[in-house]
Design brief:
It contains 3 helices and 4 strands. Strand 3 and strand 4 form a beta hairpin. The longest helix is centred in the first third of the chain and has 12 residues. It is of the alpha+beta class and 99 residues long.
Amino acid sequence: MKWNAEPHRRGNGQQEIQVSILVKEMQVTFASDSETWINQFKDRLRAIPRKNCFSAEFGYTASAIDLRTLEVWKVKANGDNNYKMFTVTLIGKNDSDRL
């Protein structure tokens, strides 16, 4: 399936650049809905090396808007969303699949 990643904001840190690359790589994936995409994203985040004492899997999150749209966020140390990095949308599915 093909996904469109619309960028919103990206920092210059090494980990953020790697997360941005990961999102761009995941524009073509077997995920057929946002929940499957998010699960694949979480699995692949674990492979990104730690920077300082922060692990990428705790510094970034993805949340589903509906079955074909999700957002990727940079997360603060306390777990709150800091800023939106990407809006990712499934290309070519019917709008009848929305929640």
